[in-house]
């Protein structure tokens, strides 16, 4: 009898500990997803223009799932200490619903990350950067977003194009329609700029003399934050779900052993 | 006799000296814009025309298949060598006028000495500027040579360069955006999470189905704490009675 009592207490202790960890991870997930949704690198317009911003939807779901995990973990702790069958049943069912939502968020984030290849950004940049006649208001909004984001990206990260300045030479673009090839082999923002934003040596930039233009592509500057965002949501969520799985199995076992 | 006379004729006019130099695209430094859609960058002809200190040095630009029809006696700045008439009515045009002072010899080490052919965009349609260094009208291939003129007489020329091909741009519609595929991580994540969720659902179903029966509860049933309160009650004071009988 004493041994059985000890086993029960150990199981209770483990489940309470499991729920405490779930609660803390829930808060961490909420904080991380709020950070991603706030878009610290300013890349949201590029994703919005691909007309598929699932990564942001996944982060939004993560915010609410984190809160739900925190609240449900408190419910779980109370239910385990009181050994109340009803409370624990409610806890298990709500946790399963939360598990399903978090699963959707992880899979969405991971799938959308695979969609964001260099070609997507290249095609979007060529078709939208400095596009002259937008078709409608939505088009105009996306064009302005893409243009401003690319200008900021190229100046801050000292890069040009997606794979390099030759992107502007290898493909025709909306930019090329309004800026002739001899004066603008690539946009002015690809030149090395001084403090006022004026090219240091315009002829050197047009010739492509090393040092007077940005020779790297911007894909690393884009894919770095996007990867962090997607993996942060998908894999941290996966870790939380694995832990939650174990705690839920333990709770189900505990529930089925309670006398009623 | 006739071939001998023909051979002697050019010598009699003083003739055009053929300098053993071929114009070439700049090799150092490596330039990103060496050839673009409508421009290319040539190395300056340093230490080539040293013997002709009074001459004007012109650049002749022709298409590969019209280079042979160019006549050295065509005067620069006329309609026969105007940029605006190239390539539909003239086989070549002359531009980038310079003197030997522009090309000092020897070339100082570390200097970038280039000629950008096609950089002037303001005079493309200006017939008053036939020597315009305008952007080239197509991808080529082009051949160029330098021609030194003393007054209006050509005195020296370089050889024709190798054919120079410019870049052609493709349409962005040719960029394929659908062959991304799925990464291994995403497939692993999806399958593992699906399995875990399925196990949990099965566990929930098992829980609810066996709610009524006690089959799994046998050895591990335990009582809820504080469910039974044991009240202490007094026994029959058996220890007091012997004291009372005495």
UniProtKB/TrEMBL annotation, chain A:
UniProt keyword Transmembrane helix, yes or no: yes
Record has Ubl conjugation as a keyword: no
Localization (cell): Membrane
Transmembrane segments: 12-37, 57-81, 88-110, 233-255
Keywords assigned by UniProt, alphabetized: Membrane, Transmembrane, Transmembrane helix
Protein name as it appears in the record: Tetraspanin
Family: Belongs to the tetraspanin (TM4SF) family.
Membrane topology: Multi-pass membrane protein
Cellular component GO terms held in the UniProt record: membrane
Gene: Upk1b
Entries under PANTHER family matching the protein: TESTIS-SPECIFIC EXPRESSED PROTEIN 55, UROPLAKIN-1B
Quaternary structure and interacting proteins, as annotated: Heterodimer with uroplakin-3A (UPK3A) or uroplakin-3B (UPK3B).
CDD domains xrefs: uroplakin_I_like_LEL
Automatic annotation (TrEMBL), chain B:
Transmembrane segments: 186-211
InterPro entries recorded: Uroplakin-3 (IPR024831)
Keyword annotations: Membrane, Transmembrane, Transmembrane helix
One Gene Ontology cellular component: membrane
Name of the molecule in the record: UPK3B protein
């Amino acid at each position: 009898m004493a041994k059985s009592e000890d086993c029960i207490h150990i199981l209770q202790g483990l489940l309470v500990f499991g729920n405490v960890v779930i609660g803390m991870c829930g808060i961490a997930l909420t904080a991380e997803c709020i950070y991603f949704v706030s878009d610290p690198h300013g890349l949201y317009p590029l994703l919005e223009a691909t007309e598929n911003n699932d990564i942001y939807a996944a982060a939004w779901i993560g915010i609410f799932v984190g809160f739900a995990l925190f609240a449900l973990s408190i419910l779980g702790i109370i239910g385990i200490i009181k050994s109340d069958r009803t409370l624990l049943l409610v806890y298990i069912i709500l946790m399963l619903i939360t598990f399903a939502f978090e699963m959707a968020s992880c899979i969405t984030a991971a799938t959308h990350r695979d969609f964001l290849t260099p070609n997507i950004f290249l095609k979007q940049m060529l078709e939208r950067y400095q596009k002259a006649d937008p078709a409608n208001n939505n088009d105009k909004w996306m064009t302005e977003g893409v243009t401003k984001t690319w200008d900021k990206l190229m100046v801050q990260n000292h890069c040009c194009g997606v794979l390099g300045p030759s992107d502007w030479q290898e493909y025709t673009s909306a930019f090329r329609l309004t800026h002739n090839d001899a004066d603008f082999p690539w946009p002015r923002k690809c030149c090395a700029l001084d403090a006022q934003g004026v090219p240091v040596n315009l002829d050197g930039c047009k010739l492509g003399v090393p040092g007077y233009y940005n020779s790297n592509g911007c894909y690393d500057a884009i894919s770095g934050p996007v990867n962090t965002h997607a993996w942060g949501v998908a894999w941290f969520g996966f870790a939380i779900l694995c832990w939650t799985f174990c705690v839920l199995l333990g709770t189900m076992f505990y529930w089925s052993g309670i006398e009623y | 006799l006739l071939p001998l006379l023909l051979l002697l004729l050019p010598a009699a006019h003083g003739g055009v000296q053929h300098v053993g130099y071929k114009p070439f695209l700049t090799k150092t430094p490596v330039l990103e814009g060496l050839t673009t859609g409508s421009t290319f960058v040539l190395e300056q002809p340093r230490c080539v025309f040293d013997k002709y200190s009074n001459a004007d040095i012109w650049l002749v630009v022709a298409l590969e298949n019209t280079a042979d029809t160019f006549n050295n006696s065509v005067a620069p700045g006329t309609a026969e060598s105007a940029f605006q008439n190239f390539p539909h009515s003239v086989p070549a045009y002359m531009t980038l006028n310079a003197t030997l002072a522009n090309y000092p010899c020897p070339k100082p080490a570390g200097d970038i000495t280039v000629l950008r052919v096609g950089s002037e965009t303001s005079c493309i349609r200006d017939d008053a500027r036939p020597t315009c260094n305008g952007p080239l009208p197509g991808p080529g291939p082009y051949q160029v040579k330098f021609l030194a003129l003393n007054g209006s007489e050509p005195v020296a020329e370089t050889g024709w360069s190798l054919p120079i091909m410019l870049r052609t741009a493709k349409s962005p519609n040719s960029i394929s955006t659908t062959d991304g595929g799925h990464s291994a991580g995403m497939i692993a994540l999806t399958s593992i999470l699906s399995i875990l969720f399925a196990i949990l659902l099965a566990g929930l179903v098992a829980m609810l189905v066996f709610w009524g029966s006690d089959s799994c509860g046998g050895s591990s049933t335990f009582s809820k704490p504080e469910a039974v309160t044991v009240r202490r009650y007094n026994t029959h004071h058996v220890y007091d009675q012997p004291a009372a009988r005495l």
